[in-house]
Amino acid sequence: METNNQALESKYHSKLNGDTILVVGMLALLVGVEGFIIYKILSETWEIASGFFYLYVIFLGLIFLIETIGCLRVRESIKNHMFEFKYYD
Fold first, then answer.
1. pTM here?
2. Any transmembrane segments, and where (predicted)?
3. Domain extents for the chain?
4. CA distances from 20 to 36, 54, 68, 72, 86 (A)
5. In angstroms, what CA-CA distances link 38 with 23, 34, 44, 51, 59?
């Protein structure tokens, strides 16, 4: 029975690593798209936006921080409940 539990835990942890890669990929995609959008906005409106540049930096930093916290919580939630709900079966 112990071998079966170890095999199941090993399977779940390898699948958790796969989910972690997906969460990191999702975060990278979000950051990339949002960075591109902010770049396009700033490049088109630089004369107007240059006075508010620090506000853009603060706003973008807050967005990235909130998204990172959200993605980390998703991963933590999957990790906490993967055995409880038989997530990977």
1. 0.75
2. 21-41, 53-72
3. 1-85
4. 24, 32, 13, 9, 17
5. 22, 6, 10, 15, 10
Exposed, middle or buried, 66 (CB in 10 Å: 0-12/13-18/19+)?
exposed
Cβ 30 vs Cβ 16: under 8 Å: no
pLDDT tens readout for residues 20-59:
999 999 999 999 999 899 889 888 988 887 788 888 889 8
Of 68, 89, 63, the closest CA to residue 23 belongs to: 68
